[in-house]
Amino acid sequence: MPEPGSKRGRGHDAEKTRETILDTAEAAFAEHGFDGARIDAIARASGYNISLLFQYFGDKLGLYVAVLKRIDREVTALQERLLAPMFEDEAIVGSVATFKAFLETIVRAYFDYLLDHILRISARSRRSCTRHRTLDCFDRTFLLSSR
Fold this sequence. Notes:
Layout: H1 14-36, H2 39-46, H3 50-57, H4 60-88, H5 91-94, H6 96-122, H7 129-143
Helix pairs in contact: 1-2, 1-4, 3-4, 4-6
């Protein structure tokens, strides 16, 4: 019988496994760059063995490409979701005030996505202090002043 909390004997959920590995790899690549991120550390942090990472992604470059493709899919889906109302309702572009409000909503939602990724990554790495100061400055200058 496997120990409680052990990953031995757990049900196999390939998609959840893949997402866990990609989450861990995204953080590692963001913190250390491609050259500095280590497959053994990614495997250990994700809770899976190296051979499973190689089985899923082939090699380090394959893992990196999978991380980038996932981000690209997320950004594309977000852009489609944000822009769909403009194509469905011509009234949005018919009024300057309505169009301006629409664009502000799009920009805020897009930056929320970007900030979520930056903050998720930087929570694991405090070496990005400059990034935090930049975001704080951006917040004060653009987001807070428009409220």
